[in-house]
Design a protein that fits this description.
Elements: E1 18-34, E2 37-55, E3 58-64, H1 69-90, E4 104-107, H2 116-133, E5 139-155, E6 160-177, E7 183-193, H3 196-199, H4 204-220, E8 229-235, H5 237-248, H6 254-258, E9 278-281, E10 284-285, E11 288-289, E12 306-310, E13 313-314, H7 321-326, E14 335-336, E15 345-346, E16 350-353, H8 360-365, E17 369-375, E18 379-381, E19 386-391, E20 393-398, E21 401-405, E22 409-414, H9 415-418, E23 424-425, E24 430-432, E25 436-437, E26 443-444, E27 446-449, E28 452-458
Parallel strand pairs: 4-6, 8-17, 16-27
Antiparallel strand pairs: 1-2, 1-5, 2-3, 5-6, 6-7, 8-28, 9-12, 9-16, 10-11, 12-13, 14-15, 17-20, 18-19, 19-22, 20-21, 22-28, 23-28, 24-27, 25-26
């Protein structure tokens, strides 16, 4: 656990200037096996201290790759000097940010060091299981990883935050060929919050995942191409999550709204059907802990839920303290930095479309000719809400029943138009938390949602 080197420096804060002083350590363990060969075996740590000082609407920032009281004093002094310099040359005379009442926010746990051999043995045993049971694959990849973020933050408002968040995953990737020799691939990640030995104390879930991925890739290698055009489809929870994050979430980040995103002129307007609600959750959703909980952000703001779309109406943005003032909204704790040397940016946390009341089997039965699109391997969207996502797993729907598996295809559209076509929402909820958001700096985020029945443009061969 980090030694407290920041609290004692509060006496050095510039009076009247909002100040943040943060010590942080990122720790990563990763082992990768490809076709039984150990191709990656790494243990990394990155730690240091940073300070940010706001004076008359401009910030001074400084960081140092050292965890010591001397380093904390040095970055605080440098950030203060930078703020004074920036104010002299580019001051906005915006005045002070509203004070957030000081409080202590803690989310601590023990972080025992796991020997690298544990990850290596797990990957080897899982790969051996796949090899012996499924010898007809052309390739397979197994990855085991653990990543931990520890942050100790004090601010001029009196916020004292010490957070430790570990997450760990196993990734299973399988490759096969169609009868025509075309390669096909499927992937699944399992895991979530917690250290590796807590999430993977045995092989049961990993073996079940391998069996599931193999069954699906065998269907995919016999798959067909989708018919191109606008179709009635069911988006699986993972696809809904991709839409929530990429095509909607980024447009309602307040810094991108200020940059001209489509969400700006649509605040208070209808952007989806009455069945669509979307929230960026802080640490609890629908009565349960979310995959990647955030209790306080790196500006010292206690994290609360941020409602974005309510029954089809766009009602809010994700803000930091500064943009919350600009848009006359409450700050919700969305400002985070990936490493100690990164300034906090407005970031998503756990962004999800709310589940509805429909049953998936009823949704499938309601479609005579369409598709059930389950998973996506990649995607892109811009601040207009236009998106294109790759579809790596899906099935035909013919006369209300699932048909053949699909070969890789794409879907595209404009999010705020497509969401207006949603007419059924399942009562399921699927989360995905194993990846990163790449907005200027990487950041772990989670996303998810239920199945949605909607109209969307699908690609063909």
């Amino acid at each position: 656990m980090l030694k407290d080197i920041v609290t004692a420096q509060k006496s050095l804060f510039i009076p009247g200037a909002h100040t943040e002083l943060r010590a942080q350590k990122n720790r990563t363990r990763r082992v990768t096996s490809i076709k039984g060969n150990l191709m990656g075996n790494s243990r990394t740590e990155e730690s240091g201290v940073s300070a940010r000082v706001r004076k008359n609407g401009v910030y001074g920032f400084s960081s140092m790759a050292e965890l010591s009281e001397e380093a904390a004093k040095a970055v605080l002094e440098a950030a203060s000097e930078n703020a004074v310099f920036m104010d002299k040359h580019a001051g906005k005379n915006d005045g002070d940010l509203p004070i957030i009442s000081g409080s202590k926010v803690e989310e601590l746990r023990d972080l025992p060091e796991t020997d690298q051999k544990v990850y290596i043995d797990f990957v080897k045993n899982l790969d051996d299981y796949i090899t012996k049971k499924y010898p007809n694959l052309i390739s397979r990849t197994v990855v085991a990883m653990e990543e931990t973020f520890e942050k100790d933050l004090v601010t001029s408002d009196g916020i004292d935050s010490h957070i430790i968040l570990p997450r760990s995953y196993v990734y299973v990737i399988m490759n096969a060929e169609t009868k025509d020799g075309m390669p096909v691939e499927l992937f699944k990640a399992i895991g979530g919050e917690g250290i590796f030995t807590d999430n993977f104390s045995n092989f049961d879930e990993a073996f079940r995942t391998a069996d599931e991925v193999y069954e699906r890739i065998m269907k995919k290698r016999e798959g067909v191409y989708a018919d191109a055009g606008e179709k009635t489809v069911i988006l699986g929870g993972m696809m809904t999550g991709m839409l929530a994050h990429e095509a909607v979430g980024h447009t309602v980040e307040a810094d991108l709204v200020r940059g001209g995103s489509v969400a700006g002129p649509n605040l208070g307007k209808r952007v989806g059907s009455d069945l669509v609600s979307l929230t960026d959750f802080a640490h609890t959703a629908f009565g349960e802990r979310v995959p990647l909980p955030v209790f306080a952000d790196d500006e010292g703001t206690p994290a609360v839920d941020c409602e974005l779309i309510k029954e089809g109406i766009l009602i809010g943005y994700m803000n930091n303290r500064e943009t919350a003032e600009i848009f006359n909204m409450a700050p919700t704790g969305n400002a985070r930095g990936f490493t100690f040397s990164d300034e906090p940016l407005i970031r998503m946390r756990n962004t999800v479309v709310h589940p509805g009341k429909d049953k998936l089997e009823d949704m499938i039965a309601s479609i005579d000719d369409g598709y059930y699109l389950i998973d996506s391997g990649n995607g892109q969207a811009d601040t207009t809400g236009e998106f294109m996502f790759g579809v790596t797993q899906g099935y035909e729907i013919k006369n209300g029943k699932l048909g053949k598996a699909l070969l890789d295809t794409t879907v595209s559209g404009v999010a705020f138009d497509m969401l207006k076509t949603v007419d059924m929402v399942s009562d399921n909820l699927t989360w995905s938390s194993s990846g990163y958001c790449g907005k200027k700096q990487p950041m772990p985020t989670s996303m998810g949602g239920p199945e949605l029945r909607c109209r969307i443009t699908i690609g063909g061969r």
